């Protein structure tokens, strides 16, 4: 007769106490294994909680060293971004990070409601704390990248700002958009004034546009600069820094775009560029990943979002110090 597990237990080739010990040991081993795997699978960051976006390694040893998962801890992003062992997952944590305590009241302006997943796309966070809020009746907004979607611009006009909107890709000439106090120009944002022959677009630097429009709005601080220009932000931003225009921007909301084909080093450079404006006094108060724009980063084994809506305010341009 073959030995069934039951027969094995009761057959008297080995005594019953020994078998009980073996069985108990097996159960213990199973429990320990379950605990270990359960822990490894437990999503431990905002990013990996979203089941559609999961990093290939949920374990982030460097991150733990720099306390990046702790809101109230100070994260040493500079050390992290300089690290030899930086991973894609850690880089993404930097893009996702935000300084929650820096703005008490942040409102999203504009955006369109999407499906699958449902949510707002293209919205821009504006900090309306008294210390930094655009002042209705006298605020100035520059908005780059409209793509026939005027909700941000119309809302900022309704809030009480004068809005200058720019987009060379819509086939529209300079005009005033209604409803609202919105002036449209068919210029694109770049690092210099040039003509883009591929598309027949006029590209201009921020400082040059500000200079040209000064007769209309004076040499005023730009209370909110919106940038949503499909990768050209990486070209325009270094010039905004170099030209000194950063010191004339009170708040900035920008969609940054990552490239799933690009290297970890390229992404590190982009992260360092953002870090450099933070070191110049731009305080991040919001970051939202774009769940409709997700990719497989083939060069560093990560599934992740390719777009992040990040907002900053300039700590050197506070209306009142707190
Ligand atoms: C967070 O924001 C506060 C201002 O509310 C600022 O003092 C602080 O330096 C910021 N922290 C980081 C890590 O940027
Ligand atoms: C290029 O754009 C200008 C206006 O911005 C227009 O007058 C001109 O006809 C365009 N050229 C071509 C080849 O489309
Ligand atoms: C991502 O790309 C890698 C390499 O091309 C491939 O092995 C992996 O299966 C892809 N992952 C997903 C989830 O598509």
UniProtKB/TrEMBL annotation:
Q: Indicate the transmembrane segments per the record.
A: 21-42
Cell cycle as a keyword of this entry, yes or no, is no
Cite the Methyltransferase domain residue spans from the record. 122-297
Alphabetical keyword list = Membrane, Transmembrane, Transmembrane helix
Q: Does the keyword Transmembrane apply?
A: yes
Q: Please name the Pfam families in this protein's record.
A: Methyltransf_22
InterPro entries, sorted: Methyltranfer_dom (IPR025714), METTL24 (IPR026913)
Out of the domains of life, which is the source?
Eukaryota
Instruction: Name the chain's protein.
Output: Methyltransferase domain-containing protein
